[in-house]
């Protein structure tokens, strides 16, 4: 049984079909990339999976349970964590505090209104581990708003990681990064993904990043899946090449 | 001594608002509703029952807290400006009710002759002027310790997340609405506690205590004193009373100057008096000062 | 009074009330549409208009002159405030705007109190509209008819202004995409100052027009700011037609509510605002706040 299963998932906005009968399965431990030209429906797909949007039609099941229609916080608590395309951090808090708040969401007594040292140390441990895995330990005490853009993108990933998710959704992690920063981010991410058996769904525009990180690629075009398979296969696919018009050789 | 007592009561009132404004960035223009409700509830109980003062004060606060859960639920349906306007609207509603429900509230005259009833068991050390001062001091200290523990707790950390980026906090899996309702209810309950202390202190309760002008004044106390610091609002309350008493002897226009000072603080020193003091004493770097300014809502 | 007469008379009342509310609401919504801020001092500008109108009338003896001078003066005060103070806050979050405009409301209220005293002041309606007409045998002040007419006239004028003039076009464009307007070469800051001034001026005009009816008093502002906000919420933040719709809705609810459920009219209005906020946060006709 696949970890994440989308079945004929559809989302309309008035007359526009943003996601068109998408069916796909992400296995446990798989690193799957979702690519497609602008407007292909990738962000909408993420928003549907994380509960920000409700599907017009179709189903989403996670670990065997139907999650379509649940609220975003509920879905998050089930074990899906995501990063955002536009960096969303708590800029006045330190990097560690950011990650700790993310980790705290998983603690049973996260709402405790007095004391809390045990909650904080447990969350802090998870936060520090996540920061270390993303190579951010050196800047842990710096306010997040003052980190370099590259580090901020990595901090977002660290926050998602702090929640020990079963499925990690990365929304354009290298968005807005320079060539150099992208290279560094890819190094860190590939190390991260190679080490554990993380299940990852990755949306990316940068093809080099996709081919470095992904085990399997799903291609969207105008909301529908036009190809789905290992990187080499997708590379050769005629339909994909047409849709992308000179994207990759 | 009475001036000091009044400063402490206002300090409690301002500190209660800081939980909402400074720590969660929920700007309320209707906090007088809490104060006035607490005063009327306590005053009514002291006038119409034989309960001692030491009982009516917490009862009034508790009652306010329970009702505030409903109020909070309503107001948090909206965010941003709409939230603020809802708090104002509900406070105006309470004002109108108090004005018209003459049989219970005494209309525009309010409740007068509110006694400081001793008890239980004949305990009367708090009845005198000095004694009452110590009562208020005790309550304020307790409330301060409680609030400080709250903002340093996991619950407080989530409030900070909501303040900085509510959407992200929601995305992390927190039910932000529930946290907001909790902090608003708590804030109103503490504000009502202050009002409940005021009624036996002054001996009366009237519609002025529910008017939007008071809501504005307490908000100003929080901002000028330093939002998000708990101590700052208490300083702001003391500052307000001082200015009111000093300037009103010299000029009719003291409220005008106060408004101008407020505007100046919002623009130039959003971290407030306490924020400025802390910066001076710890000689923070410019970077960290900007970091702190974020707490008060700048940039 | 039979039912038809009652409905007609009260509707006329509501229309005149709607006109006043419209003056207040349209400025607030325009300001929000351009600047994404809510001017908490809007009710105070309305009040300022009433008091300046009173003085202009005392000095010149002409209501019509007051009707021109007061909005102009209020508009200038507003524009100066935007230039001097609001401009510094555009990079801050919205709570800073709320508090600064609140501070302005306090300061202006005090200025009025010091300048004109705490008592309510009587303002005479213009001689042309002091009489009474009979509607279905019920006496009805012509001034109210004048108000309704003035409201309609100004609504039409604003509509044409937004549709046909260059500044109107700039205003509409800026409210949709300020960056684009800036990129195309217009100084968006000037548009903002102009809109804030115009919005305040409209509020001031509302105040002058209201004065003969409600007298100029210090308490005016607090009630009106909530009313203005309710209108803008119901009609939609930033929507000009929405402010018209909102004004009509609120006026009718107030007038008929006052008759049938006098004590509950206030609560009912807040209930409507709440419902709209819950069901359609963008208002009935507007864009998302």
Outline the fold blueprint.
The complex is a heterotrimer of chains A (249), B (299) and C (289).
Chain A: E1 4-13, E2 16-26, E3 31-35, H1 42-49, E4 57-62, E5 65-66, H2 72-78, E6 80-82, H3 95-104, H4 117-133, H5 149-162, E7 167-171, H6 179-195, E8 199-203, H7 207-213, E9 216-221, E10 224-229, H8 231-236, H9 238-244
Parallel strand pairs in A: 3-8, 3-9, 6-7, 7-8
Antiparallel strand pairs in A: 1-2, 1-4, 4-5, 9-10
Helix pairs in contact in A: 3-4, 3-5, 4-5, 5-6
Chain B: H1 2-24, H2 32-48, H3 53-75, H4 80-100, H5 102-105, H6 129-151, H7 154-171, H8 176-202, H9 212-225, H10 231-250, H11 254-268, H12 272-282, H13 286-296
Helix pairs in contact in B: 1-6, 1-8, 1-9, 1-10, 2-3, 2-4, 2-8, 3-8, 7-8, 9-10, 9-12, 10-12
Chain C: H1 3-35, H2 42-60, H3 63-84, H4 94-116, E1 132-135, E2 138-141, H5 142-164, H6 166-176, H7 178-183, H8 188-214, H9 220-235, H10 240-260, H11 265-279
Antiparallel strand pairs in C: 1-2
Helix pairs in contact in C: 1-5, 1-8, 1-9, 1-10, 2-3, 2-4, 2-8, 2-9, 3-8, 5-6, 6-8, 9-10, 9-11, 10-11
List keywords for this structure.
heterotrimer; B: 299 residues; mainly alpha; 13 helices; globular; C: mainly alpha; ABC transporter involved in vitamin B12 uptake, BtuC
Helix-strand sequence of chain B: HHHHHHHHHHHHH
Unreliable spans of chain C are none
Any idea what the radius of gyration of chain C is? 19 Å
Would you identify the CATH architecture of chain C? Orthogonal Bundle
What's this entry about, in short?
The complex is a heterotrimer of chains A (249), B (299) and C (289). Chain A has 249 residues and is α/β, with parallel strands linked by helices. Chain A has 9 helices and 10 strands.
Written account of the structure:
The complex is a heterotrimer of chains A (249), B (299) and C (289). Chain A is 37% helix and 24% strand. Chain A is an alpha/beta fold. In chain A, the strands form 2 sheets. Chain A has a 6-stranded mixed beta sheet, sandwiched between helices. Chain A is globular. With 299 residues, chain B is an all-alpha fold. Helix content of chain B is 76%, strand content 0%. Chain C contains 11 helices and 2 strands. Chain C has one domain: ABC transporter involved in vitamin B12 uptake, BtuC. Chain C has helices spanning 3-35, 42-60, 63-84, 94-116, 142-164, 166-176, 178-183, 188-214, 220-235, 240-260, 265-279; strands at 132-135, 138-141. Chain C has a two-stranded antiparallel sheet with strand order 1-2. Classes of the chains: A alpha/beta (249), B mainly alpha (299), C mainly alpha (289). Chains in contact: A-B, B-C. The interface between B and C is large, with 39 and 38 residues.
